[in-house]
Backbone:
């Protein structure tokens, strides 16, 4: 699979991988990588870095929205091969190590196999290594509150619910919110388009995920970069409000 790299703002790129997105933030040759796709997306991930004039050696850090297999796929590879720090919210650090797993089970997926799109999505998951575990052996919590001293100056914002340590990343100067799976614009098994929560089976704590929409609504921005689905343009508050309406 080739990388689908789209520039959405100055120095900001949304990359569509195998049903999962990641984001590249550039500052000269150096980059911040937000999420890494499925394990099977590795070639596309490396190609996407080349497409923006960078390389895995130039990745200053990998920021993880949450430690599900389709976002964590190549984080440990980059850490062990290139010495890249892998940073997450402190509550997500043990999840990345796989001290525990807050992810939908195969049994739950099979019980939902009757739903439109589930079987094709599951075939894709299996094909891209989505049931494999690639824990990060030495993940680290963010070193300080506020903007990180990395390309793009991303600000982590804790948005628990999908997982306990899920974070979105706010780029105030660019008016961008990288929303991971706390607020998406589509999914392979969703029948609606535009801002929404993921289907209920994917959330560790659905009530928490709904509550975190209020946190996202408080972030200034006009560009939403979700973990699943296309870029969404328009006030982030309106996107979060619409997702909340659709959740009930």
Residues:
């Amino acid at each position: 699979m080739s990388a689908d790299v789209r520039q959405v703002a100055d120095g900001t790129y949304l990359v569509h991988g195998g049903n999962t997105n990641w984001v590249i933030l550039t500052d000269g040759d150096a980059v911040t990588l937000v999420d890494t796709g499925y394990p099977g997306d590795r070639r596309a991930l490396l190609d996407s870095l080349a497409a923006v004039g960078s390389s895995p050696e130039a990745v200053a850090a990998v920021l993880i929205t949450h430690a599900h297999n389709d976002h964590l796929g190549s984080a440990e590879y980059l850490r062990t091969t290139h010495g890249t720090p892998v940073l997450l919210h402190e509550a997500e650090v043990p999840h990345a190590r796989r001290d525990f797993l807050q992810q939908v089970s195969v049994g739950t997926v099979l019980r939902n196999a009757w739903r439109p799109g589930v079987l094709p999505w599951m075939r894709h998951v299996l094909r891209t290594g989505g049931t494999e575990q690639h824990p990060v052996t030495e993940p680290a919590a963010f070193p300080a509150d506020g903007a990180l001293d990395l390309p793009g100056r991303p600000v982590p914002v804790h948005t628990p619910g999908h997982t306990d340590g899920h974070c979105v990343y706010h780029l105030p100067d660019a008016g961008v919110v990288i929303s991971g799976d706390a607020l998406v614009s589509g999914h392979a098994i969703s029948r609606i388009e535009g801002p929404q929560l993921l289907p209920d089976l994917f959330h560790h704590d659905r009530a928490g995920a709904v509550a975190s929409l209020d946190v996202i609504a408080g972030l200034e921005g006009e560009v939403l970069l979700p973990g699943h689905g296309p870029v969404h343009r328009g006030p982030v508050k309106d996107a979060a409000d619409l997702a909340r309406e659709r959740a009930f």
Observations:
- DSSP finds eight helices and twelve strands in the chain.
- The helical segments are 42-51, 69-72, 75-82, 93-97, 106-111, 118-127, 206-217, 236-246.
- The mean pLDDT is 95.
- Residues 206-217 form the longest helix (12 residues).
